[in-house]
């Protein structure tokens, strides 16, 4: 993870040092706002000349001689990085400063290895289609490996098969804004970008996609924010609005900006303090619930605003504030599909059972399509070695296409099967707005639920009990003066 972080900010510095896009006829060169240029001696081309001992085009060396190892490392630690962290003024400079301030930037390579990496990166030309395709492909693979092999990084990475299915259902269109309030390494935003790029038919479409602010993301932690920003830049997003901040510290009741599309896999299982909870109508400390309220409030009031969201299974059946949030969702939004993902969908870094919620502005909900993603015959389950793939979503895609046609009045109502069924608002209301992914006939039988559902409910109940005991302890401690 440290080496990937190191590589990322070096790529970023090379990327923003490319010549002004206006000086090139290449469309790819329009990927960057010229205000991002770094001043004078801090530009990549200036300091790497001394680090690598480059000669000018005429073969004559000018200026200072090549730095030795101590000079190179001293310049990075004591000059370049503090300068980058201190940038201020324009929004573009604040983006750069946000990457480098407030933390210790990793310098994990030895001087010898660092020079070798600098030399390789210096040979990349971001105006060259072949170069940028190669770099972005390698970078994507590094992020994928980081998500699969590093449990600490898993929370920032959504498996590609899940991300693609979410985007395919939501269908973001050119001209719409796309938002992820917990964007991690921007996997969902990149999938949206690739989907929208396929729909570009004219140069005007491409310019709208590249030059207009389209993709917006917040990320609390600095390293994934950096990884995500460069991920978007390498994929050709021109002005990605990736902010390093805690989304939940914003007042959810009076959102400042609204969006056409929200795609998100926010963190769950965490808690927020009382100060943060005051930003929400529903008083709860569970991050998954706070993100749900935030997202509902960030959808545009007009048009076809819609969302695809990953939630832990407990969000579908827990009581209290969770039940009130589900009632709000069903009454004021159209929850048109719930997809239950199998255990191991996010392996190896999480075995929490999860589901996908798909909803849009313009409620109330009338009917909900339920689907289950299951292993193929002969496959025991999902883990690091046998992850979810696009093939596992083939039936779900086909069923969704039929359901979407039915909702438009162009197709008969899909028939229930072993993996999908439809429930009405009244059926869900009758059981206290429980959205659990269990077929009605399964609920009518007095049977023990499957192991994954049972453990999910036990974990949720244990969490509720733990929070209750904590509150009781604080009150008793204050009463006796502990």
Molecular structure report:
The chain is of the alpha/beta class and 482 residues long. Helix content is 44%, strand content 10%. The chain contains 17 helices and nine strands. It has a nine-stranded mixed β-sheet with strand order 3-2-1-4-5-7-6-8-9, with helices on both faces. Helix 10 links the parallel strand 2 and strand 3. Helix 2 crosses helix 5. The longest helix has 30 residues, at 451-480. It is globular and about 80 Å long. Its EC number is 2.1.1.72. Keywords: Methyltransferase, Restriction system, S-adenosyl-L-methionine, Transferase. This is site-specific DNA-methyltransferase (adenine-specific). It holds the Pfam family N6_Mtase. Belongs to the N(4)/N(6)-methyltransferase family.
């Amino acid at each position: 993870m440290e080496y990937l972080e190191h590589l990322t900010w070096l790529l970023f510095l090379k990327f923003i040092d490319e010549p002004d896009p206006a000086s090139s006829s290449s469309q790819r060169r329009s990927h960057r706002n010229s205000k991002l240029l770094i001043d004078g001696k801090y530009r990549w081309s200036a300091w790497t000349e001394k680090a690598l001992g480059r000669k000018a085009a005429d073969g004559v060396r000018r200026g200072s001689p090549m730095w030795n190892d101590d000079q190179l490392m001293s310049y990075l630690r004591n000059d370049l990085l503090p300068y980058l962290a201190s940038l201020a003024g324009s929004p573009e400079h604040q983006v750069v400063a946000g990457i480098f301030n407030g933390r210790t930037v990793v310098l994990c390579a030895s001087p010898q290895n660092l020079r070798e990496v600098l030399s390789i990166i210096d040979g990349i030309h971001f105006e060259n289609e072949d170069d940028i395709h190669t770099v972005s492909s390698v970078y994507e693979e590094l992020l994928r490996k980081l998500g699969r092999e590093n449990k600490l990084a898993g929370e920032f990475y959504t498996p590609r098969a899940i991300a693609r299915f979410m985007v395919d259902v939501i269908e973001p269109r050119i001209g719409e804004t796309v938002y992820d309030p917990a964007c991690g390494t921007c996997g969902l935003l990149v999938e949206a970008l690739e989907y929208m790029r396929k729909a570009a038919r004219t140069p005007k479409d491409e310019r709208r996609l590249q030059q207009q602010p389209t993709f917006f993301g917040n990320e609390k932690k600095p390293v994934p924010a950096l990884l995500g920003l460069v991920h978007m830049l390498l994929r050709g997003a021109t002005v990605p609005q990736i902010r390093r901040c805690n989304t939940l510290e914003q007042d959810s009741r009076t959102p400042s900006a609204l969006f056409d599309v929200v795609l998100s896999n926010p963190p769950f299982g965490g808690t927020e303090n009382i100060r943060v909870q005051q930003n929400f109508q529903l008083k709860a400390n569970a991050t998954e619930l706070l993100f749900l309220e935030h997202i509902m409030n960030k959808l545009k009031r007009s048009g076809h605003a819609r969302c695809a969201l990953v939630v832990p299974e407990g969000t579908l059946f827990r009581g209290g504030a969770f039940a009130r949030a589900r009632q709000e969702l069903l009454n004021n939004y159209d929850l048109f599909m719930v997809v239950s993902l199998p255990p191991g969908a996010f392996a190896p870094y999480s075995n929490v059972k999860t589901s996908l919620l798909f909803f849009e502005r313009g409620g109330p909900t009338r009917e909900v399509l339920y689907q289950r993603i299951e292993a193929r015959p002969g496959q025991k389950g999902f883990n690091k070695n046998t992850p979810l793939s696009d093939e596992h979503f083939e039936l779900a895609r086909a069923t969704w296409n039929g359901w979407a046609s039915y909702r438009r009045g162009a197709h008969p109502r899909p028939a229930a099967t072993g993996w999908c069924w439809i429930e009405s608002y009244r059926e869900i209301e009758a059981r206290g707005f429980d959205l659990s992914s269990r077929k009605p006939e399964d609920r009518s039988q007095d049977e023990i639920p499957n192991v994954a559902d049972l453990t999910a409910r036990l974990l949720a109940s244990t969490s509720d009990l733990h929070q209750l005991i904590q509150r009781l302890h604080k009150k008793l401690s204050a009463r006796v003066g502990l």
